[in-house]
Design goal:
alpha+beta, Aspartate Aminotransferase, domain 1, Ornithine Decarboxylase, Chain A, domain 4, 16 helices
Length: about 500
């Protein structure tokens, strides 16, 4: 057992910062000296002294190298691996986006098939382009009443592996943005491993699951690799993430390390790295108590929402129709608020909360908003949220507009299906295309990945035929309105289509 009370990287940075070393290396602000000059003083004054003192570089040998760790970074990563039940852990300073790329590229050669449910984050498609892998997409069921995608199931993964026995790996997102995960994820691991495949998990939204004993974490159920956005829920600074591996062969680990050195920066932020060290220490020492409190806060909010007239939570909807959701588990720290009126959009609700109560939500969906309870919350923030939701409920009662068409009308996806493009994402990326009006794209194959953001899940995948159903759904989203990412025309009046 390692000493989980220790913070080796943080301690080393603190010690180094007190030496008053004269810097003739990067970064160019020279321990913040630049910001003593002219108008830049306000920046230094706002951030304080120490943040600049620990913004160092790999030139300082005693604070170790991220690409070739042999000192305090290596020690910090070993501590993280132990607490997360991993064989090895790699620190990331560019979010889980990089982790998704590394996992897929480490396992798949060009042309290898990989099973991927289509509730994937938008970072997965670039990973497919880089790796040259060929995705076997699973259509994830869509809840037409609430307006959210659910997740994959044991049955869908098993069918995909039976139909495509040559796949190299299975990639799943668990939990999803809304906190939905396959209830029997352990069975998925068994099925994947029994067939000699790798299971890769985008656990960006589940860095805290390890500390909720009742919920399954990817490493806890013996997935081969998983990436976690430590910054999302358990206190690391934005972009700070971790990639965990377990049970992979030495040659596969070597390949992953080479890719890590290829796709991660040679100038990492030591501020971000040390926040990972501190976050791990925090969770190792008092993590379960913090998570227990998080769940308590979230349940308190849900109980208050039950008493409101025009708002409800995802948990309430589940309790009304348990059969519909029997294949899924739910992260209790995520709170999805839904308008019972259906004539108030998620964007409306988010705007009202910000304007009337100074509350910023995590995401505004089609007809819902997502709220995160994290280790940073306390009684005061929860009370403010409850008060704000009460004001929102009063607004919804008074300001209802004409009824809009429910999102489910356009996406009839009650059953899981398998979808495969005739070209790999890499081939599509380099293919010839033509830009046409969106209405003229119906019946054609898209050359672009159309993503509704948030939550950053693709609506149309490159190589997919654009149907009337998809076109109608895009028109609906534009009326809300919604931001579209991944396309050359962000207004989505036009779209690139493949030219044979």
């Amino acid at each position: 057992m390692l000493d989980q009370c220790s913070t080796p990287l943080f301690d080393k940075l603190c010690k180094y910062s007190k030496k008053d070393v004269v810097s003739f290396h990067t970064p160019g602000h020279k321990s913040g000296n630049l910001f003593k000059k002219l108008d830049a003083q306000k920046f230094r004054s706002f951030l304080g002294e120490n943040v600049f003192r620990i913004d160092l570089s790999v030139s300082c040998k005693e604070i170790d190298s991220l690409h070739e760790p042999k000192g305090v970074i290596e020690e910090a990563q070993k501590l993280a691996a132990e607490i997360y039940d991993a064989d090895s852990t790699f620190f990331l300073t560019s979010g889980s986006t990089t982790g998704n790329l590394l996992m897929i590229a480490a396992v798949c050669n060009p042309g290898d098939e990989i099973v991927i449910p289509d509730n994937m984050h938008k970072s997965v498609w670039p990973a497919l382009v880089v790796s040259g892998a060929k995705p076997i997409y699973l259509r994830v069921p869509y809840d037409k009443d609430i307006g959210i995608s659910l997740n994959c199931t044991v049955n869908s993964i098993q069918k995909a592996l039976e139909k495509y026995p040559s796949v190299k790996a299975v990639f799943i997102t668990s939990p999803s943005y809304y906190g939905i995960y396959p209830k029997d994820i352990r069975k998925i691991v068994e099925i994947v491993h029994d067939k000699g495949k790798k299971l890769l998990v985008d656990e960006a939204w589940g860095a805290h699951l390890k500390f909720l004993p009742s919920l399954p974490s990817a490493m806890g159920v013996d997935a081969d690799m998983c990436v976690q956005s430590t910054h999302k829920t358990i206190g690391a600074l934005s972009q700070a993430s971790m990639l965990h591996i377990k049970g992979i062969k030495e040659d596969e680990r070597d390949r992953l390390k080479k890719l890590y050195q290829m796709f991660t920066t040679t100038s990492p932020s030591y501020i971000l790295l040390t926040s990972l060290d501190i976050s791990r220490n925090l969770m190792a020492t008092i993590g379960e108590n913090l998570l227990s409190q998080m769940v308590e806060y979230a349940n308190k909010v849900r109980e208050k929402v039950k008493k409101l007239r025009c708002l409800c939570t995802l948990k309430e909807e589940i309790s009304k129709n348990p059969k519909k959701y029997k294949l899924y588990g739910f992260d209790p720290t995520k709170i999805t608020i839904i308008s019972k009126r259906k004539d108030i959009t998620g964007k409306d609700m988010a705007g009202i909360l910000l304007k009337n109560s100074n509350i910023q939500v995590e995401m505004a969906g089609i007809n819902n908003i997502l709220l995160l309870i994290t280790v940073g919350d306390d009684e005061q923030s929860v009370k403010k949220l409850i008060k704000g939701l009460h004001k929102l409920d009063q607004y919804v009662q008074k300001k209802g507009r004409e009824r809009v068409i429910a999102p489910g009308k356009f996406l009839k996806r009650d059953k899981e299906k398998i979808f495969v493009t005739d070209k790999t994402p890499k081939s599509i990326f380099y293919s010839k295309f033509q830009k046409v009006r969106i209405v003229n794209a119906i019946g054609k194959k898209s050359a672009e990945c159309v993503i509704s953001y948030p939550p950053g899940i693709p609506i149309i995948l490159p190589g997919e035929v654009i149907t009337h159903e998809k076109y109608d759904y895009i028109k609906y989203l534009k009326r809300i309105p919604t931001e579209f990412h991944g396309v050359s025309d962000p207004e989505l009046n036009s779209l690139k289509i493949l030219v044979d």
